[in-house]
Amino acid sequence: MRKIILYLLPFLFCLSCVDKKESVQPISLSIKNIDMDSVGIRVIHYMDGKELFDTIIASKDTFMMGNLKEDMYLLAIYWPRTFVPHQIYKDRSFNKEVGEYYNLTKAFYVEPKSSLVYEFYTDSLYTGEEIELNNITKVNVNVSQCQTCAVADEFWDNYTKFFDRKEVLVDELNLSFYRSIENKNKELSRTNFIKADSVKKSLLTDSLYKIDFDNLVQLHPESKASTFFVFYQLYLERDFEKYRNSFDILKGQALESKYYQMIKKQYDN
Q: How would you write the pLDDT of the chain (269 residues) with one tens digit per residue?
């Protein structure tokens, strides 16, 4: 998910609710369809931002790690950048998104009881240079053995659609900004710049996102992934009434998620 890193925020409350007695099983991670000798991989706990490991692996190898409990994580696949687009190179020092390394990121849910193997892959076989030249940002995870992981991917896809709409809106606002500059309208230029910058920095989702979000919770009321995303939206927006209906329809295994108690504690208060 090319923009999902924007939503990786430090989480500073309710971590005391986590069950520290939860058992840990070895998890294997593998990278497919990236034609390189080796890549760096970094795994981060999605909510608290804690880096669990950062290492270099042969791109066709499987990496075993034993400290991934059931939860949401972020995987970053990275390598030294070999290509910088010409339009970026000219003002590279002003573009914080262009660094020494090229990154592919993927948010993914781990449910050890369903799957101990998590395979990440691009849509086709690419070299690192091809990925950079074509600005490929999407990496997938095989969720065929994990229903909760598949539901989580549906929720993340909803975020991707939102970011696509947001990108179109920002492009339109930027175009209005440049036109106002060409017309030497300083006041309108300032207004358009502020609008574009505000939309770009805002973490609030749009109404279409909320409709699709509610539909997903209704489709998967017993999924722990639904519980996580209700929690996540409350964390981002702090609007409990807005998501109360989604919280109220959670049932079955969704109530067993550690995030359910965190939400309930907030509602009870």
A: 445 444 444 343 344 344 444 556 789 999 999 999 999 999 999 999 999 989 998 877 788 887 789 999 999 999 998 876 554 444 444 444 557 899 999 999 999 999 999 999 999 999 999 999 998 888 999 999 999 999 999 999 999 999 888 888 877 777 777 777 777 777 777 777 777 777 677 667 788 999 999 999 999 999 999 999 999 999 988 888 999 999 999 999 999 999 999 998 877 76
Q: What is the amino acid identity at position 85?
A: P
User: Does this model's pTM top 0.85?
Assistant: no
Q: Which of 5, 45, 29 shows the shortest CA–CA distance to 203?
A: 5
